[in-house]
Amino acid sequence: MEWSTACPDWENRIVKGKSLVPLAPLFPDEAEAGLEVMRQLRIVDAPGSPTIGEACAPWVSDFAGSVFGAYNPDTGRREIKEFALVIPKKNSKSTIAAAIMLTLLIRNWRESAELIVLAPTIEVANNAFAPARDMVKHDDELSDLLHVKDHVRTITHRGTGATLKVVAADSNTVGGKKASFILVDEIHLFGSNHNAENMLREATGGLASRPEGCIIYLTTQSDKPPAGIFLQKLQYARGVRDGRINDKRFLPVIYEFPKAMIDAGEHRRPENFGMVNPNLGFSVDREYLERELTKAEESGEESLRGFLSKFLNVEIGLALLSNRWAGAEFWEQQTRQDLRLDEILARSEVVVVGIDGGGLDDLLGLAVVGRDKDSREWLSWCKAWAHPSVLERRKEIAPQLHDYARQGDLMLVKQIGDDVEDVADIVEQLDSSGLLHQIGVDPAGIGAILEAIVARGIDQEKVVGVSQGWRLGGAIKTTERKLAEGNLLHADQPMMAWCCGNARVEPRGNAILITKQASGSSKIDPLMALFNAVSLMALNPDTPGGTLSGHILKHGIRTL
């Protein structure tokens, strides 16, 4: 059999309200047999306790039918092994999860089979178990067929001995599981779990010897920038949907607005809410969404982004909190996808470098800022390095660091010194271009970096110490203004969006501070490097190697 799970025309489909499932069930009889069972299950907490068939929109049958209809009864194999559904809150996600898994339990033929719903927390596990439990307890025929054990969140098939169990995920819970069917609920909450990938590998290992099985991912968008295992699965799902990745064993269904609509602000128009809320008019109330949007808009950017992510499935690029850095609000709009280091060198008349961090518990950040020879816009590109000890000391951010390493914006060095040598290599490349004016550094702990730079034959006079603390406030405000004015452009680097979202402002008298202490375990070193570079570019250097100002500090470098 030949088929494709790609849906390259998804933007046209979602605008017109068409199904996002790109193909009919591979085995229609199996799909109909499963749907016949599922349609009779009752939604107990809905008014009048209607059945799934009476209360759900057609898209539910489209998605569930693709799961049931992927099973080949002649070979005993499920031809599509993974399914993903990304959908906003209140679209009956928990009910759908319960109904699909309960149907698979009823129709399963394997003796003592295991079916598990993997939830990130106890609360989510309880939410996933309750609809399935109620569907059984409020149906006499199902009560005779299935036995519910509330205290362990388990439903057992009396005939086959197969079990459906809802578990809060950790490696100890899922270790050794031989599940035939796995449903991962709210996978976005696994994004900050540094061990999530290994845990899922443990949970899904049983599929290697159970060809009839499958794994289903159900989730809403995250109210933080996607990270870790969630980012991996989301990017993969989009790749399959768009036709960039050829994987006919993976079927993604993602309810999200086309990027052009988000850029134009059309996703915030109430008449478009139904595009990403397929259950609008069923379990989703339009008036409620409109009121929540109004309240979120009045409450500020942080509240608005939370509403957009949860109720309209808009991906968040920056984590903007109440004490956020003002420049972060303008960061995303100044992104340029083609702006890399070579492009900056080709367009610039002069470049400066900023360097910050480098401790075993920090990132080492480097920022390059060039001034466009024609428009005089400031062009920036950043990179960071991390020692493996950071991954151990800061396990809560390890998934993000691995993401940025895969994207190429962060290097995970194998031993101390490799990061400094890489920085010196980039500085040498810039100096060889004839465009390098100065290198701005935090004077504290600069010894190793200075030695590596000088060893490349670069004039030590080009290395300038940039005063930190409240004295850096001018560079911070300059960066804010340049972003807001549209005169500071930067490369499309998710790592830098993360750093901007981590930056926390502390008022000190008439000045402002952005400190690593206020940012907690999250990292801002590449952003601090950018501020150091901005300090130099703000002096409006005329030509590379211009006159240095300041006085001699330790290590023989000058300070602004």
TrEMBL record:
Domain Terminase large subunit-like endonuclease: start-end pairs: 257-536
InterPro entries: P-loop_NTPase, TerL_ATPase, TerL_nuclease, Terminase_largesu-like
Residue span(s) of domain Terminase large subunit-like ATPase: 59-199
Domain of life: Bacteria
PANTHER family per the UniProt record, alphabetical: PROTEIN YMFN, PTHR41287
Protein name, per record: Terminase large subunit
Provenance organism: Oceanisphaera sediminis
